[in-house]
Amino acid sequence: METFINQYHREFDFYNAASLLAAQLIEAQLVSKGIRAIVTSRAKSPSRLHDKITKRALEENKKYMNLDDIYSDIVDLAGVRIALYFNSERDEIEQIINDIFSIHKKKEFPTEGKSQGYKATHYRGTIKANALTEQQQRYSKANIEIQVASLLMHAWAEVEHDIVYKPLQGKVSESEQKALDELNAIVLQGEETLKKLQQATYKRNSFNDHYDLYNFLIQYISEKYDVEEELALVGDVKKLYYFLLDNKINTQIKLKNKIKDCNIIIGENWTLSDQIMDYILGNYRNKYLLHVDSVIYENKNGFLAESAAGAFLFAWIDLEKMLKEESIATSNKNEYIKLNSLVNMGVLSKDEYDRIYKLRSVRNSLVHGIEIPESDYLEWYTKEILELTQNLKNKIQGNKNVQGEVDEPA
Questions:
Q1: Cα–Cα dist 389/265, whole Å
Q2: Is the separation of the CB atoms in 126 and 144 below 8 Å?
Q3: Domains identified in the chain and CATH numbers
Q4: pLDDT band at 204 (very low <50, low <70, confident <90, very high)
Q5: What is the pTM of this model?
Q6: Which of 87, 270, 315, 396 could, after both became Cys, cross-link 385 (CB 3.0–4.6 A)?
C-alpha cells in the first residue's frame, strides 16, 4: 500500500493534468452548445487516497496482492464534475461525453430500490485519441471519472459525503440523517423550480446570447412536436446564434416565422441547429452565398474558391429545390423528407441516392465550415450535380409523359 502511495505521489501531476484537460474539452463543447454548467476537475489527493485504500482494506476486507489490484479498484484518481443548471440537458451532456471519451462503465444514482438521495450519473472512461493533439496523446491512458448532476445536487452531495462517509465523531445520528433527508427534498424541489425558470426564459423575445437561444429551441421543439426535451439533439447553438445575428433573425418572432414550415427531424444525428440553418439557407439563395463567403474568408481559401463555391451552391440549390418539389408532388406533404424516402417512392435510384448523399456531405462541409474543398474538386462536384439534375429532370418528365398516356381516355 505504501509503495502504491509513493508511486502515486510521483504520478499526481499526470492525473491532475489529465483531469484538467478532460474538463477543458467538456467545457469547450458546453459553451459551443449553449449549455450552462460549472465544470471542475481534480486528481485525488494522496492523503485522501491513503484513507480510502485503508478503509477498503479494513472495513470491506479488500485483498490487494499487487499494485495492479489497487489501480483496478481505485478508478477515480482523475475526476471531472459537471454541475448542471438544468437537469433537462443531461442527454446533451451524455452526447458530449460520448464524443470525447470512450466510456467503459456508466452508473446511475440513486440505485435501484431507492426513491431519494444522490441523483446523478457517473461515467468512467478514457479520452479518445482523436480528441487529443499529438502532444497530448499520453493522457489517453488515464482513467477518468465524470460525475454529472445538478448544481444543487452536487452541493447536497458534498454535505452528505462529509457527514455520512467521513464522520469525525462517530456514527451519524438520527436527527442528522433526518436533516439530510429534508435537505435532499428541498434540493429535488429546487431542481423542479429551475426547470420552471428554464421554461420561463423561453418567453423572452430577443436572444441576448446563445444560452437564450438554446432554451428557446428546447421549448419550441418540445411544444411543436410534442416530444420529450431530452430527445432533441441541439448541436452547435453558438454557431447558429451568430448566423441568426448576422442575418438579423435575432428574436423569437422572426425565427418562428422563418422556420414555421420547417419539418424538424427528431432523434437523428442531424442536429436542430444544423437543420434550422440548412432550412434558412435553402430558402434564401442570397443568404447561402453570403454565408459561404464568410466561411471561406475565415478559412482563407481565396477568391478562386469563392467563385467555385458559388457555382457549386447555385447548382446544389437547384437540385435541392427540384427534389423538394418532386417530394411534395409524390407525397402531398409540404416538407423536406429523407433521401431514402425518395428511393422508396421511386424518385431516385440507389445509385443516384448514393451520389446525392455524397454531394450533400460536401455541401455540409462547405456551408458549416467543416472543411473547404479545393476549387478543382468543387468544379468537379458542380459538374456532377448538373449532370444529376438534368438526368432527374428527364426522368421526372418521362414519368409525367407516361402517366399522361395512361390517363388519356381510349
A1: 25
A2: yes
A3: 2-172 (3.30.460.10), 210-407 (no CATH)
A4: low
A5: 0.60
A6: 315
